[in-house]
Amino acid sequence: MKNKSAKISTDQLFFSHTWNFLNVYLVKQVGRSQATAESYRDSLTIFKNYLVGELGKSISTFQFSDCTKECIYNFREYLLANGSQPSTVNVRVAAIRAYLNYASDMDISVQSVALAISQISPCKTIKKEKPILSDDALAAILSAPPNTKFGVRDRAILILLYDTAVRISELLNIRLCDIAMESKYPNIFITGKGNKERTIQLTAKAVEHLREYIRVYHSNSSKEAYLFSTTIKGVTDRMSVGNVQRIIKKYAALVSEKGVSLPDSVHCHMFRRTRATNLYQDGIAIELVSTVLGHARTDTTKSYYAKPSVEQLRDAMESVPTPVSDEAPMWEGNEDEMARLCGLR
After folding, report:
1. 3-state class of 315 per DSSP?
2. Which letter, b or e, does each residue of 279-297 get, where b requires 16 or more Cβ atoms within 10 Å of its Cβ?
3. Cα–Cα distance between 2 and 318 in angstroms, integer?
4. For the chain, where do the domains classified as CATH 1.10.443.10 start and end?
5. Nearest one of 129, 130, 228 to 179, comparing CA atoms
6. What does the DSSP 8-state code read for residue 63?
């Protein structure tokens, strides 16, 4: 006699499509960057760890039907209770939602689950003002590296982060063949998020430091070599984000010890934000700033980087005309106008 207990179909297991979602669909079919795929992988892994470690579930038995609204709400509460910011929690849930949408295209029976999770409202977030480096702080950090071989490298990294306003991933993906310093307008070719390409002009000062760095580090390198790399156990590869962050922290600490005021945490993206804000405050059109940053929409640039300076705010306030005190109200003696202002006919 056959065992009547229903065997779980492999297709109904929640994690049955994650490999294809992360390795085929995201990168090869819809053209998302590897960094985006890794972000989704991290979020789904954290969800898996929560199910296994906190709820005692198993990957081999957890089904799509088990991923209820209550399950995701409890997952959110768990993340918040363990110190995750609301914005980070929203990213985690968005990854689960995207995965469910993909799985529902593979299997129509998952659509009801995907629809239910799509109706979960995001956590409310407080939009905090992001700090930037003051002129004094920026100058101090850029001049902090010593006149040594490592100092030449570190200064080139710091100057390019600010001068080009590139994302750290974009900086570390630059190869020697992407740099054109001998042209009339020296520039760097950047491949950004979503494989979007753009060319960024270099200032004369940045060219000077970059030329010296290449002379010291790349006198015999091939054109395909990464601009910034490290060699570990004889293997040379592009430098890691963590290595750049350690460089920034080191010089920020040195500058802080000398009494220069800095934000609580100086990191890679702060150079991009500082450069974008400075360009905007110097009167550069928001469309041009957006192009430099590689944004598809100027709304993104306005939202995050268009921060007016104190001088701009003061000029705007002073440009507002003072009301003329002896003007008579336009409705005085006009019964029809007063009736209209009261919402009457």
Report:
1. helix
2. bbeeeeebeebbebbbbee
3. 87
4. 135-314
5. 228
6. B
Output helix, strand, coil percentages for the chain, rounded to the nearest 5. 60, 5, 35
- Boundaries of CATH 1.10.150 in the chain? 10-118
What pLDDT, on the 0 to 100 scale, is given for residue 309? 52
Going from the C-alpha of 35 to that of each of 39, 101, 218, 342, the distances in angstroms are 6, 20, 27, 59
State pLDDT tens for residues 314-332: 555 555 555 555 556 655 6
The predicted pLDDT at position 286 comes to 79
Rg of the chain over CA atoms, in angstroms? 27
CA dist 214 and 177 (Å) reads 12
Q: What is the pTM of this model?
A: 0.65
Amino acid identity of residue 187, one-letter, is N
pLDDT digits (tens, 9 = 90+) for 152-179: 999 999 999 999 989 999 999 999 999 9
CATH superfamily of 135-314: Intergrase catalytic core (1.10.443.10)
Q: Does residue 293 or residue 184 have the better pLDDT?
A: 184
Name the residue with tokens 């209209």: 340
Rounded Cα gap, residues 211 and 132, in angstroms: 28
Cα 123 to Cα 52, 73, 89, 97, 182: the distances in Å are: 24, 10, 7, 14, 50
* Assigned token pair, 308: 């007016």
Q: What burial class does residue 149 get, using C-beta atoms within 10 Å of its C-beta: 0-12 exposed, 13-18 middle, 19+ buried? A: exposed
